[in-house]
Design goal:
The structure is a homodimer of 195-residue chains. By secondary structure, chain A is of the alpha+beta class. Chain A has helices at residues 5-15, 20-29, 85-90, 111-120, 122-148, 151-161, 165-168, 171-178, 182-194; strands spanning 31-35, 40-42, 50-56, 59-64, 70-76, 81-82, 97-100, 104-110. In chain A, 51% of the residues lie in helices and 21% in strands. The longest helix of chain A has 27 residues, at 122-148. The A-B interface holds A 63, 65-67, 69, 71, 73, 85-86, 89-90, 95, 129, 132-133, 135-137, 139-140, 142-144, 146-149, 179 and B 63, 65-67, 69, 71, 73, 85-86, 89-90, 95, 129, 132-133, 135-137, 139-140, 142-144, 146-149, 179. The first copy, chain A, binds a DNA duplex (30 and 30 nucleotides) through residues 150-151, 170-172, 180-187, 189-190.
DNA sequence: CGCGACGTTGATTTGCCTCAACGATTGTGG
DNA sequence: CCACAATCGTTGAGGCAAATCAACGTCGCG
């Protein structure tokens, strides 16, 4: 059985080179966990205490509205992070769910270990500040897109940014991410194929 | 003429008590500026280099879509911050505008001064990490609301959270924030008044 | 083989937009 | 201080994007 931490260390090195001490800290702190398809990493009401890195597999983060409908906010595959950053840092109950769409492997730490890591090695504090900014930026992009694009435009944008997900994820999930019904996604696809 | 920095210091003290040194640093670093109604603090393409605290007045942050339509993302009044956090930290050109809706007074620093402040006084680093988390949280809330509520529900929610803005801001601006036309906001209001 | 999940299609409905028109209010120049 | 223009909120008619509901074919799987 392979040691997944090397994948995470590679990931960090692609952002900011780590020294040997820092690499060792990653090896110590991050723990491996397997999640089976359809199992949950987080459910509404839980406080999100873990920050998780996806080694392999695929997750979706979603909320359930008052009519019981699900709305996907994010998909996370290899080399992405998956957690409710708000619940994680505020230590408040989450309004979100995180579900594995495939059998997956993650590396995770608790928020307390992470904060300790920040204190011990400023490099990580720096990396995670950037990650938070990226999260902020991508959320801003989603809002801007939502208020200014049609469903078809949102689909085309998604297809361009995450082409590999089109085949990997069911269209029910993609429709939920785009904010349309699966039926309407189907008509969008038909229309695009024609043109 | 009054010194506005005391207002900002009060604001900080309400979050985390400052010591004398920290208060002095605020006095040195933050500069006052008056912005007249209809003037811009930021325009698309600019890199947002200033982080601004609203002492008095009111601002709106908005984007312009490809059809030339404006979409308000945020209103900031007294005791709020106003800046494009993404452009500020990434030092990339902004896609947003910030406009004064009233004659206003702000206190601002450049991003470089702010980062220096973080290094010198960890307290501020802590406060601003919380502010970034709050920004993330409120953006998440907006997305969740957008995908799961009708315009009427969004209006009721806005009216509950920011009742004072209903009279302070024109309905054109409120409609733009809610993502509807002013005409439709009007019909929403009529319907609510009836029930 | 039969069942359930999934993607597709069509008919109908609905939420919201567009456009046009109208009084009321505000601002401005003479 | 008035006259006029400009802006703002409202109302209504008509249209479109997307939802809902129902039905059907296909596929993988027990």
């Amino acid at each position: 059985m392979s040691d997944c931490t090397s994948i995470l260390i590679d990931y960090f090195n692609r952002h900011i080179p780590l020294n040997k001490e820092e690499e060792a800290a990653v090896k110590v702190l991050f723990k491996e966990r397997r999640i089976r398809k359809r199992h949950y990493l987080l459910q509404e009401g839980d406080i999100c205490v873990n920050n998780s890195f996806v080694v392999s597999g695929c997750f979706r983060m979603f909320m359930v509205d008052k009519n019981g409908k699900e709305h996907n906010l994010q998909f996370s595959t290899e080399d992405w992070w998956i957690s409710d950053l708000y619940s994680l840092f505020k230590r408040e109950p989450s309004k979100l769910y995180i579900e594995a769409l495939e059998n997956s492997i993650i590396l995770y730490t608790t928020i307390d270990e992470l904060l300790q890591l920040f204190e011990d090695y400023p490099t990580f504090s720096h990396i995670f500040r950037i990650l938070t900014q990226n999260a902020l930026a991508s959320q801003q992009q989603r809002i801007l897109q939502y208020v200014s694009s049609t469903a078809e435009e949102r689909y085309l944008c998604f297809a361009q940014k995450r082409p590999e997900l089109l085949h990997r994820i069911s269209s029910v999930q993609i429709a939920s991410y785009l904010g349309v019904t699966p039926e309407f996604l189907s008509t969008i696809r038909k229309k695009i194929a024609k043109s």
